[in-house]
Amino acid sequence: MPGRLASIALAVVLLSMVVPARAATIRITMENLVISPAEMSAKVGDTIEWINKDVFAHTATSENGDFDVNLPPKKSATFVLKKAGAIDYYCRYHPNMKATLKVAP
Amino acid sequence: MLIRWSAAAAAAILLSSPVLLQSASAADKPTDPQIAHVAYTAGVIDIKAAKQAQKKAKSKDVKAFAEDMLRDHEAVNKQALALVKKLNVTPEDNDTSRALSKQASDKLAELDKLSGAAFDKAYVANEVAYHKAVNGALETQLIPSASNAELKSLLQTGLKIFQGHQHHAEHVAAELK
After folding, report:
1. In this complex, do A96 and B78 lie within 8 Å of one another by their Cβ atoms?
2. Which of A94, A57, A84 is nearest to A72 (CA)?
3. Distance in Å, alpha carbon of B33 to nearest chain A alpha carbon
4. Are B158 and B51 in contact (CB under 8 A)?
5. What is the 3-state secondary structure (H, E, C) of B110-130?
6. A39-46 average pLDDT score
7. pTM score, two decimals?
8. Could you say which of A18, A87, B11, B23 would form a disulfide bridge with B129 (CB–CB 3.0 to 4.6 Å)?
9. Residue B123 to chain A, least CA–CA distance (Å)
10. Which residues of B touch A96 (CB under 8 A)?
Protein backbone atom coordinates (compact mmCIF):
# COMPACT_ATOMS: atom_id res chain seq x y z
CA MET A 1 0.00 0.00 0.00
CA PRO A 2 2.64 2.56 0.88
CA GLY A 3 4.41 1.44 -2.28
CA ARG A 4 1.38 2.25 -4.39
CA LEU A 5 0.97 5.59 -2.70
CA ALA A 6 4.57 6.40 -3.36
CA SER A 7 4.27 5.52 -7.03
CA ILE A 8 1.10 7.58 -7.36
CA ALA A 9 2.85 10.45 -5.64
CA LEU A 10 5.78 10.04 -7.98
CA ALA A 11 3.50 9.96 -11.01
CA VAL A 12 1.77 13.11 -9.83
CA VAL A 13 5.08 14.85 -9.34
CA LEU A 14 6.36 13.73 -12.72
CA LEU A 15 3.14 14.70 -14.47
CA SER A 16 3.12 18.09 -12.91
CA MET A 17 6.64 18.59 -14.18
CA VAL A 18 5.88 17.45 -17.68
CA VAL A 19 2.40 18.70 -18.41
CA PRO A 20 2.54 22.42 -17.70
CA ALA A 21 5.75 22.82 -19.65
CA ARG A 22 4.29 21.42 -22.89
CA ALA A 23 7.25 22.74 -24.79
CA ALA A 24 6.54 23.36 -28.43
CA THR A 25 8.82 23.59 -31.41
CA ILE A 26 8.29 26.76 -33.36
CA ARG A 27 9.51 26.90 -36.92
CA ILE A 28 10.72 30.12 -38.49
CA THR A 29 11.98 30.24 -42.06
CA MET A 30 14.65 32.34 -43.69
CA GLU A 31 14.01 32.56 -47.39
CA ASN A 32 15.06 35.10 -49.98
CA LEU A 33 16.70 37.11 -47.22
CA VAL A 34 13.48 37.45 -45.25
CA ILE A 35 12.73 36.01 -41.81
CA SER A 36 9.15 34.88 -41.50
CA PRO A 37 7.18 35.26 -39.44
CA ALA A 38 8.99 38.42 -38.47
CA GLU A 39 7.20 38.45 -35.14
CA MET A 40 6.57 35.24 -33.25
CA SER A 41 5.14 34.49 -29.80
CA ALA A 42 6.61 31.67 -27.72
CA LYS A 43 7.08 30.52 -24.14
CA VAL A 44 10.09 29.82 -22.01
CA GLY A 45 11.06 26.20 -22.70
CA ASP A 46 9.92 26.27 -26.33
CA THR A 47 12.37 25.35 -29.03
CA ILE A 48 12.84 27.72 -31.92
CA GLU A 49 13.86 26.02 -35.13
CA TRP A 50 15.15 28.32 -37.84
CA ILE A 51 15.06 26.84 -41.32
CA ASN A 52 17.42 28.44 -43.81
CA LYS A 53 16.03 27.86 -47.30
CA ASP A 54 18.56 30.17 -48.94
CA VAL A 55 21.84 29.28 -50.61
CA PHE A 56 23.40 31.91 -48.37
CA ALA A 57 24.65 31.37 -44.86
CA HIS A 58 22.61 33.20 -42.23
CA THR A 59 22.66 33.60 -38.47
CA ALA A 60 19.99 34.21 -35.86
CA THR A 61 21.74 36.59 -33.51
CA SER A 62 19.95 38.25 -30.61
CA GLU A 63 20.55 41.90 -29.81
CA ASN A 64 20.82 41.06 -26.11
CA GLY A 65 23.51 38.43 -26.59
CA ASP A 66 21.31 35.48 -25.54
CA PHE A 67 21.90 33.49 -28.70
CA ASP A 68 23.95 33.47 -31.87
CA VAL A 69 22.84 30.53 -33.99
CA ASN A 70 24.65 29.69 -37.23
CA LEU A 71 22.52 28.63 -40.18
CA PRO A 72 24.55 27.27 -43.07
CA PRO A 73 22.87 27.26 -46.51
CA LYS A 74 19.85 24.91 -46.70
CA LYS A 75 20.24 23.85 -43.06
CA SER A 76 18.28 24.38 -39.91
CA ALA A 77 19.27 24.84 -36.27
CA THR A 78 17.51 25.19 -32.94
CA PHE A 79 17.64 27.13 -29.71
CA VAL A 80 15.68 26.52 -26.51
CA LEU A 81 14.24 29.69 -24.98
CA LYS A 82 15.37 30.23 -21.41
CA LYS A 83 14.24 33.74 -20.60
CA ALA A 84 11.03 35.70 -21.02
CA GLY A 85 10.87 39.01 -22.81
CA ALA A 86 10.88 40.55 -26.26
CA ILE A 87 14.05 39.50 -28.05
CA ASP A 88 15.08 41.28 -31.22
CA TYR A 89 17.38 39.31 -33.46
CA TYR A 90 18.98 39.66 -36.87
CA CYS A 91 21.36 38.01 -39.31
CA ARG A 92 24.95 39.11 -38.74
CA TYR A 93 25.78 38.65 -42.43
CA HIS A 94 22.66 40.39 -43.72
CA PRO A 95 21.70 42.93 -41.06
CA ASN A 96 18.61 43.92 -43.05
CA MET A 97 17.11 40.60 -41.95
CA LYS A 98 15.41 41.37 -38.62
CA ALA A 99 12.76 39.72 -36.47
CA THR A 100 11.40 39.56 -32.91
CA LEU A 101 10.50 36.77 -30.51
CA LYS A 102 7.93 37.54 -27.82
CA VAL A 103 8.73 35.07 -25.07
CA ALA A 104 6.15 34.62 -22.31
CA PRO A 105 7.21 33.14 -18.96
CA MET B 1 38.96 66.97 -50.92
CA LEU B 2 40.38 67.19 -54.40
CA ILE B 3 41.53 63.61 -54.14
CA ARG B 4 38.18 62.44 -52.88
CA TRP B 5 36.42 64.24 -55.74
CA SER B 6 38.65 62.86 -58.39
CA ALA B 7 38.33 59.37 -56.95
CA ALA B 8 34.57 59.70 -56.94
CA ALA B 9 34.60 61.03 -60.47
CA ALA B 10 36.85 58.21 -61.60
CA ALA B 11 34.61 55.65 -59.97
CA ALA B 12 31.58 57.20 -61.59
CA ILE B 13 33.20 57.19 -65.00
CA LEU B 14 34.64 53.71 -64.61
CA LEU B 15 31.57 52.12 -63.23
CA SER B 16 28.52 53.84 -64.53
CA SER B 17 28.92 55.00 -68.05
CA PRO B 18 30.82 53.01 -70.57
CA VAL B 19 30.82 49.42 -69.58
CA LEU B 20 27.63 48.52 -67.86
CA LEU B 21 25.52 50.70 -70.07
CA GLN B 22 27.05 49.29 -73.19
CA SER B 23 24.63 46.42 -73.24
CA ALA B 24 21.73 48.83 -72.75
CA SER B 25 21.46 49.90 -76.33
CA ALA B 26 18.14 48.53 -77.43
CA ALA B 27 19.65 47.28 -80.64
CA ASP B 28 21.73 44.58 -78.98
CA LYS B 29 19.87 43.36 -75.96
CA PRO B 30 22.10 40.84 -74.15
CA THR B 31 21.22 37.19 -74.57
CA ASP B 32 20.85 34.79 -71.64
CA PRO B 33 24.32 33.25 -72.17
CA GLN B 34 25.78 36.77 -72.17
CA ILE B 35 23.80 37.84 -69.11
CA ALA B 36 24.96 34.74 -67.25
CA HIS B 37 28.55 35.56 -68.18
CA VAL B 38 28.27 39.18 -67.04
CA ALA B 39 26.63 38.21 -63.73
CA TYR B 40 29.22 35.51 -63.06
CA THR B 41 32.09 37.84 -63.97
CA ALA B 42 30.71 40.55 -61.69
CA GLY B 43 30.71 38.00 -58.85
CA VAL B 44 34.27 36.87 -59.56
CA ILE B 45 35.43 40.49 -59.49
CA ASP B 46 34.02 41.06 -56.03
CA ILE B 47 35.45 37.76 -54.80
CA LYS B 48 38.92 38.81 -55.97
CA ALA B 49 38.50 42.20 -54.30
CA ALA B 50 37.42 40.49 -51.07
CA LYS B 51 40.44 38.18 -51.12
CA GLN B 52 42.73 41.15 -51.54
CA ALA B 53 40.98 42.90 -48.66
CA GLN B 54 41.33 39.87 -46.41
CA LYS B 55 45.07 40.14 -46.84
CA LYS B 56 45.40 43.91 -46.66
CA ALA B 57 42.57 45.34 -44.58
CA LYS B 58 43.36 46.72 -41.16
CA SER B 59 39.95 47.43 -39.65
CA LYS B 60 38.02 44.56 -38.10
CA ASP B 61 34.78 45.78 -39.71
CA VAL B 62 36.37 45.89 -43.13
CA LYS B 63 37.77 42.38 -42.71
CA ALA B 64 34.35 41.11 -41.64
CA PHE B 65 32.73 42.87 -44.58
CA ALA B 66 35.19 41.24 -47.00
CA GLU B 67 34.40 37.86 -45.49
CA ASP B 68 30.68 38.48 -46.04
CA MET B 69 31.32 39.42 -49.68
CA LEU B 70 33.34 36.27 -50.23
CA ARG B 71 30.69 34.02 -48.68
CA ASP B 72 27.71 35.54 -50.51
CA HIS B 73 29.26 36.00 -53.93
CA GLU B 74 30.66 32.49 -53.91
CA ALA B 75 27.19 31.20 -53.00
CA VAL B 76 25.55 33.15 -55.84
CA ASN B 77 28.15 32.05 -58.37
CA LYS B 78 27.88 28.43 -57.29
CA GLN B 79 24.15 28.74 -57.85
CA ALA B 80 24.73 30.39 -61.22
CA LEU B 81 27.04 27.58 -62.34
CA ALA B 82 24.52 24.97 -61.26
CA LEU B 83 21.82 26.80 -63.21
CA VAL B 84 23.73 27.14 -66.48
CA LYS B 85 24.63 23.47 -66.24
CA LYS B 86 21.01 22.54 -65.67
CA LEU B 87 19.83 24.72 -68.54
CA ASN B 88 22.66 23.46 -70.70
CA VAL B 89 23.73 27.01 -71.45
CA THR B 90 27.33 27.99 -72.08
CA PRO B 91 28.03 31.46 -70.69
CA GLU B 92 29.23 33.62 -73.53
CA ASP B 93 32.05 36.09 -73.12
CA ASN B 94 31.19 39.56 -74.35
CA ASP B 95 32.39 43.16 -74.40
CA THR B 96 30.68 44.03 -71.12
CA SER B 97 32.34 41.13 -69.28
CA ARG B 98 35.71 41.95 -70.81
CA ALA B 99 35.50 45.63 -69.94
CA LEU B 100 34.36 44.83 -66.41
CA SER B 101 37.31 42.50 -65.91
CA LYS B 102 39.76 45.02 -67.29
CA GLN B 103 38.49 47.78 -65.00
CA ALA B 104 38.53 45.45 -62.05
CA SER B 105 42.12 44.37 -62.56
CA ASP B 106 43.15 48.02 -62.87
CA LYS B 107 41.33 48.71 -59.60
CA LEU B 108 43.00 45.76 -57.88
CA ALA B 109 46.40 47.08 -58.95
CA GLU B 110 45.52 50.55 -57.74
CA LEU B 111 44.34 49.27 -54.35
CA ASP B 112 47.38 47.05 -54.07
CA LYS B 113 49.56 50.15 -53.77
CA LEU B 114 47.66 51.31 -50.69
CA SER B 115 47.88 50.00 -47.16
CA GLY B 116 46.38 50.39 -43.70
CA ALA B 117 43.54 52.87 -43.27
CA ALA B 118 44.00 54.26 -46.78
CA PHE B 119 43.41 50.80 -48.24
CA ASP B 120 40.37 50.24 -46.02
CA LYS B 121 38.76 53.49 -47.15
CA ALA B 122 39.49 52.97 -50.82
CA TYR B 123 38.31 49.35 -50.78
CA VAL B 124 35.03 50.15 -49.05
CA ALA B 125 34.41 53.22 -51.24
CA ASN B 126 34.92 51.06 -54.30
CA GLU B 127 32.59 48.40 -52.91
CA VAL B 128 29.86 51.02 -52.50
CA ALA B 129 30.35 52.29 -56.05
CA TYR B 130 30.71 48.82 -57.51
CA HIS B 131 27.58 47.42 -55.92
CA LYS B 132 25.65 50.53 -56.95
CA ALA B 133 26.74 50.06 -60.54
CA VAL B 134 26.07 46.32 -60.59
CA ASN B 135 22.68 46.79 -58.96
CA GLY B 136 21.80 49.47 -61.49
CA ALA B 137 22.79 47.17 -64.33
CA LEU B 138 20.80 44.29 -62.85
CA GLU B 139 17.71 46.42 -62.39
CA THR B 140 17.69 48.27 -65.69
CA GLN B 141 19.33 45.83 -68.09
CA LEU B 142 20.13 42.32 -66.99
CA ILE B 143 16.89 41.39 -65.24
CA PRO B 144 14.59 42.94 -67.86
CA SER B 145 16.59 41.30 -70.66
CA ALA B 146 16.72 37.80 -69.17
CA SER B 147 14.28 35.51 -70.91
CA ASN B 148 14.68 32.31 -68.87
CA ALA B 149 12.53 32.48 -65.73
CA GLU B 150 15.05 30.71 -63.50
CA LEU B 151 17.86 32.97 -64.64
CA LYS B 152 15.66 36.00 -64.00
CA SER B 153 14.81 34.73 -60.54
CA LEU B 154 18.47 34.12 -59.67
CA LEU B 155 19.32 37.63 -60.84
CA GLN B 156 16.50 39.00 -58.67
CA THR B 157 17.84 37.15 -55.63
CA GLY B 158 21.27 38.49 -56.53
CA LEU B 159 19.94 42.03 -56.71
CA LYS B 160 18.35 41.69 -53.29
CA ILE B 161 21.51 40.40 -51.67
CA PHE B 162 23.72 42.96 -53.44
CA GLN B 163 21.46 45.79 -52.30
CA GLY B 164 22.12 44.52 -48.79
CA HIS B 165 25.86 44.59 -49.57
CA GLN B 166 25.59 48.16 -50.78
CA HIS B 167 23.89 49.25 -47.53
CA HIS B 168 26.43 47.31 -45.52
CA ALA B 169 29.32 48.92 -47.45
CA GLU B 170 27.80 52.38 -46.99
CA HIS B 171 27.49 51.70 -43.27
CA VAL B 172 31.12 50.54 -43.00
CA ALA B 173 32.25 53.55 -45.07
CA ALA B 174 30.42 55.91 -42.69
CA GLU B 175 32.06 54.23 -39.68
CA LEU B 176 35.51 54.68 -41.18
CA LYS B 177 35.16 58.45 -41.44
Report:
1. no
2. A57
3. 22
4. no
5. HHHCCCHHHHHHHHHHHHHHH
6. 96
7. 0.78
8. B11
9. 18
10. 164, 167
